[in-house]
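My main concern about presentation is that the manuscript never shows what a single data entry looks like. Each protein is reduced to its one-letter sequence and a matching series of backbone shape codes. For the editor and my fellow referees, an illustration may be useful. For illustration, here is how one protein appears when written out as sequence plus structure tokens:
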Amino acid sequence: MLGYIRFGSFLLLSAPLTGVGVLRGGAWTWLGLVASLGVLAVGDQVLRPDRSTPELTRPWLLDLLLYAQLPVCLLAIALLSWRIAPGDLWGIGSATQPWSRGNGQPGTPTSGLFSVLGAILSVRVVLTANFYIAHELVHRQHNRFAVAAGRWLLAAVADTQFAIAHLYGHHRHVGTPMDPATARRGETLYRFVGRSAVGQLASAWYFEAERLDRRGEAVWGWRNRFLRGQAMTALIVAAVAVGAGWQALLGYLLCVACAKFVYESVNYIQHYGLVRVPGARIEPRHSWDSAAPLSSAYLLNLTRHADHHARASVPYWRLRLHADAPALPGGYFSMVLVAMVPPLWRRTLEPLLRDWDRHHASAEELAALRTSAQ
């Protein structure tokens, strides 16, 4: 049972703490963010690495953890909207007394900026989960319900294009200049986030237009999954604006932007500085792995990234670590924090990249590195 619980750590930790904090108001709104960062960043450093691949025989329970994110996500957006909007939106405050305060009473003013910012950043933790849960779901191309659920989760964070760009671009071009989601050697996190976001948006449109053209179908039509995805996002944005007002809409959009930044930060560390010659076989050496236990559990084994690229259709609980994949010195969460300080990131990764060049890179890859450095 412990194996199931650890993969449900997000639902047991971040989501409820965020909900309680947003309801309580004041400094409590920071609870979801502070608790999650503290537990994950510190826990990965003090707990022993986890290299096990347990036999879990109840896949329906593991799948339930994924689909539960849909109502959790909607509830988080509703609570954020209530915390920001003037008055007692939808009567949430009255219904949750004595937990709520601030704008929990009808007619009271909107919460202060400190409280609102804490709510936005804590709900960001909840919405960031949409990305890696949707990542798992959209890979299940044989299951239309799973793909639809994943796309709605992505719509709530304004990134349905990920379902196209990731499957048809990243998994084909990883490690090459053609992949906007591969961080180049020496590229800062902040430069990468913008390049990756714009590049994936453009590549998603290209791949979908190419698919429709092969099928002889109109690009500007409802069969275009890129356009349908944007419409899904627009529907959610309109629902927040109409149902909660412009203040809540601004807070929600800021929350989505922060969630996107954090997930792109994860993209940044997964392949940073590793190169592959276009057309060459994708191997474990082209992804950074991590055996950090809490990052692995929280991110549904996304930390076992080399195996994911080798076996993209394998469910998250069956992914394993590769002995010949390069390893990060910490968990994904602590590495994201390091990446936010570019000089520290370079000092941390440069020795690892030199080791990769000596022991993992092919002659063609070393030549590509020399060419890119010129």
Summary: The mean pLDDT is 92. The radius of gyration is 21 Å. Residues 2-172+183-272+288-340 form one domain.
